Amino acid sequence: MLLLLLLLAIGVNSTTYIESLNLTLVLQTSTFPETPQMLHGTAPPAPPTDITGQDRPNDAGGRTVVSWTKSADDGQGKNSVQEYVVFRSTNIDGEFTEIGTARKGVQEFVDISTTDGVEYYYMIKAFDGESFSEPVLSGAITSSAQWFHVGRVNMLVAVLILSFLILWFIQRAKKGEELYIRPIAGLEAVDDAVGRATEMGRPIMYIPGIMDMDNIQTIAGVIILSRVARKAAEYECPILVPTCKSIVMSAAQETVKEAYLDAGRPDSYDADKIRYLTDDQFGYAAGVDGMMMREKPGAVFFMGCFYAESLILAETGHSVGAIQIAGTAQPSQLPFFVTACDYTLIGEELFAASAYLSKQPLLLGSLKGQDWGKGLLIIILIIGIILVSFGFQQVVGWLTVG
Amino acid sequence: MRRQGPLIITFITGAVIILQYFIPHRPFSDLQQLFNTWFLVIAVFALILGVGNLGKIHFERVFRRRENWPYSIVLILGFIIMFGAGIIWGIQRGTPFYYIFWNVHIPMGSTMFALLAFFVASASYRAFRARTPEATVLLISAIVVMLSRVPLGNFIWKELPLIGDWIMAYPNMAGQRAIWIGIALGVVSTSLRIILGIERTYLAGK
After folding, report:
1. Which of A9, A75, A147, A203 has the highest CB neighbour number within 10 Å of its CB?
2. In a domain, B137, yes or no
3. Quick one: how many helices (H) and strands (E) in chain B?
4. Among the four given CATH numbers 2.60.40.790, 3.40.1080.10, 2.60.40.10, 3.20.20.210, the one describing domain A44-147
5. Rounded to whole angstroms, what are the CA distances from A137 to A8, A51, A117, A232, A400?
6. Is residue B159 in a domain?
7. Cβ <8 Å between A219 and B205
8. Transmembrane residues, as ranges (chain B) (predicted)?
9. Is there a domain that residue B81 lies in?
10. Of all helices (H) and strands (E), which one includes residue A256?
11. Does residue A22 contact residue A109 with C-beta atoms inside 8 Å?
């Protein structure tokens, strides 16, 4: 009896081993089987249908997209499909190699390893964990690179219109036309802040954010620094610029040095006042807070890109009694600056600051063009809302960037 | 040429980056990644400038016994210990650098981040004082949204979470989108000024 049980156990184990070996072989050899594999005697899942393929649009080539309709046993019927296995071959009669899988319910597979100009045939089989369905084959599909992203035509049109408006107003400004720019309270207060710090005998602190020079907000911050430093040089008020990035330090040093030269006070320039602290976000916040507590600046400017350290810095500046002007294009940080600072430049005002402060006609012209662009966008938005409200849904597609 | 060189480089780089957005074909599709790599290389070398600046200021402060000079010793020692530990034993798990980083540096960063809670409290107190009609609206909105995000809000009134969601999805989202549109236009305008060489202040010019 014991011997019989032992033999039976060995027999069962052997069958399981052979079956699992078969399954492994089916999965690993990945060759094109002519008939569905039925490993346990149960019926294989129904195959996917309507397999189609095309070059992946708007890319640099090397990719195709294969689509199919779900198997009748995927989410319905026997509901046994676990995944779809994708095979590929360059010859419809040749050997197909497995290139990937797609989870059940998915009806698309992106092949990211094609060679442009080569014809590929795809075969999809549904797999239920034990057996494969009948294979379905696609026609020949070829990938290629495109020279224009057709999904971004709307963006191109918008950029061209905006660029035209900006350049047009710059031309008008060049001809000497007076351009009205609405007053921005935060920028009007820049001179007052520098003056106040001078009267109090305290330095100015200028913080250009925590991002590097590849960030447009940091560039805007450095541009505004030039105007503030020039005013500080005129008033002979020391300016401290702690930076979080070495390149920003270097750019800020050059900018402040040039501003002092312009103001006719090159001797007052002190390169050590524009210093690098650390790349670490909260290390930088700690360093700047320490400087604020020791130096007690009379005016603090936050101009650039800020994250979680914004309130830590602004509240410390508030606690030392400094007049504070902030500007950032980070909507998530704006509430903190609005709360803790005396003036806040909201989003676009940060980018407008340079033109506004310099009053140069060319820069003011670009600002005017930007305002007209905004007006145009508001009109488009209103028209879009009306059209969509009346069921004209195509407008959503026109305004969606691919 | 001192001024023209950077302007030409800026124009070409800016124009290529714009073109690669609309042209997916090579070589344009690879250029942004290439430029990013170049920027990283420059940034790494620029780090030497930063460290040099840091060392110069703090060594000078120690040697001349300027105000708060003992803090500079802490900074210099911290730098030497971390730099030395990294060079000698590497930075992988189990090394002194790794230990100091996770047990000194990270907790100190977390402490600074934790201070935010207290700053939020003090800032909120000032912002939410109902001195003007706008501040009153802000106060009421803030209370509703905060209550709607915790189980207590649902317990007080089951419609409260819906009102909180409505405030976030409509007035708040509309405001944010308006800011984003303005920012996008500002970015385009500033970029155009820089690419065309109209704005040169970042090159330390007039």
Report:
1. A203
2. yes
3. 9, 0
4. 2.60.40.10
5. 43, 7, 20, 74, 34
6. yes
7. no
8. 7-23, 35-57, 69-91, 97-123, 135-157, 177-196
9. no
10. helix A246-262
11. no
Burial of A198 (0-12, 13-18, 19+ CB in 10 A): buried
Token duo for residue A13: 């184990």
Is the sign of the CA dihedral B186, B192, B195, B196 positive or negative? negative
User: Whole-prediction pTM value?
Assistant: 0.81
DSSP assignment letter at B196: T
Q: Map tokens 């620029």 to a residue.
A: B46
Residue of A nearest to B71 (CA): A290
Q: Do A362 and B126 touch (CB under 8 A)?
A: no
Question: Which stretches of A296-346 are DSSP H helices?
Answer: 309-319, 334-340
Instruction: Give the pLDDT of residue B204.
Output: 60
Classified as helix, coil or strand, A57 is coil
* Partner residues linked to A69 by β-bridges: A49
Locate the chain A residue with the closest alpha carbon to B176. Answer: A331
Task: Please answer yes or no on whether A223 and B202 come within 8 Å at the CB atom.
Answer: yes
Among residues A259, A294, A288, A261, which one has the least CA distance to residue A276?
A: A288
In angstroms, the CA A79 to CA B203 distance is 65
Sign of CA dihedral A373, A344, A256, B57: negative
Out of A28-37, A312-321, B130-139, least confident range: A28-37
Helix axes A216-235, A348-358, angle to 10 degrees: 40
CB contact under 8 A, B204 and A257: yes
Question: Could you tell me which CATH number the domain at A179-359 has?
Answer: 3.40.50
Give the model confidence (pLDDT) of B17-50 as tens digits.
Answer: 889 899 998 888 888 889 889 988 988 888 898 9
Cis-peptide into B27, omega within 30 deg:
yes
The structure tokens 């949204």 sit at: B145
Range of the domain at B204: 128-206
Give the DSSP per-residue string, A272-283.
GGEEE--SSHHH
Minimum Cα–Cα distance from B135: chain A residue: A339
> What would the two tokens of residue B190 be?
């500033």
